[in-house]
Design goal:
heterodimer; A: about 250 residues; alpha/beta; Metallo-beta-lactamase, Chain A; seven-stranded mixed beta sheet; six-stranded mixed beta sheet; about 25% helix; B: about 210 residues; mainly alpha; about 90% helix; about 0% strand
Amino acid sequence: MKSTPIFESAGHRWHIVHDQDESRVIDANVYALQYGDSAMLMDPGGFEVFPSVLSALIDVMPMASIKTALVSHQDPDIASSLPLWNSCVPDMTWYVPSLWVGFIRHFGALEAHIEGIPEEGMRLSLDGLPLEIIPAHFLHASANVHLYDPTAKIYFSGDVGAALLEPGHSPLVGDDADGGRAFDLHIKHAEYFHRRWMPSMHAKQEWCERVSKLAIDFLCPQHGAIYSGQNVSRFINWFSELPVGDWRVKPET
Amino acid sequence: MNPRHVAVIADGSFHAKNTLRRALRDIDRRALNAIVHVKRHGRRLAGYGMVAQAFREQAAELRALADAMQALMRPLIYAQMEIVRDQQTWLTFKRLCAARMARETSRQNRSQAQIDTVEKKLRREAHTHRQRMRAILQELIRAVARLQESISAQEYVVVNGRIEAALLRADGADLLMQVSADMATAVGNTRQAVEHYRQQLEEVTHEIDADF
């Protein structure tokens, strides 16, 4: 896995850890936000990819700085590494949607310090950096959250925007000023995932309306590549028009 | 894997890497300054020219050795995390065994045979991962030792440079004294950082060997 910087400004950094080497499990991105002496992980990944994720992260930050993790929902590709992280960094605080706290503990580490996120989301501070946990329920899990960093204008979108790409892919969707050509090529890899995994038209529409009002430079999904610049609004518009919640849809070939 | 070892190796490697990067950049910059300064003053400071060139060559060697050492850090952390994962698997396995044994006393013998097979497999995998980590750790310590030898050579060049600068009577000699002193500080910082890292690695190695 590679650790690539997305944003950097005076001790405030975002990194993506992407392009995993383990092909037997679904490819998943891990994001790390560093501010001052603290770091927060977004969807820290599964049990199998844990050695790759941690060794890639240690290239760019000390392990002692990792204080917090956000778990957007209960899937194993996101959170089954929890007991491993907990054994290495026992003081970590885990922010998890309240609805999933009892389920997440099934991954192990009953003693882990888990904070439930209320249904309406919450505000958070990482060493003084203001962050917003934004509800994204039913996108795709019934309790689901995203994270917005208004200073960096980065929106961690969990499974929204996800695409299943070939190994070796770039961390970004592509040139955002090419009239949408890179976006059009990319979004084909995202369509089936969104139609099949997102169950609620109503939840999707509400999310699109809410997020389109935010200033976002990077929309960062948990699978695939990051939407930057104009590709962010292209994605929100595309998603807004997409019919979802139909299990009969077929995967692209 | 003791969580303290994980933290020592992960954070020790991160800090050693960053300190080295800054210190080597500093050494390289000072070596280049010395060369430029000697060239600017022509024949009057020619005696120092050899020293300045040696600074530069030694700095390049330090960088190459530091790169070789750093290339082992990530595999080491990866191997260490494999052990952490093995331990978690082992813990889960033991809990499953305990639960199963408590439920199935009448079929205990059959269950025990299955458990023994899985246990052997897990032990074998864990042993392989521990051996791998130990081998990388030892290789890393050897790479650190090579880097330390090169730092000693650079310190020798620095001492020569200070003597050479002290013997010069020409204009610009003061500046070369300062260059030599700054170089001595930069090399000293590098030596300290590498020594500290080696101590951390050796301490962890002893503790891991005791666990074996």
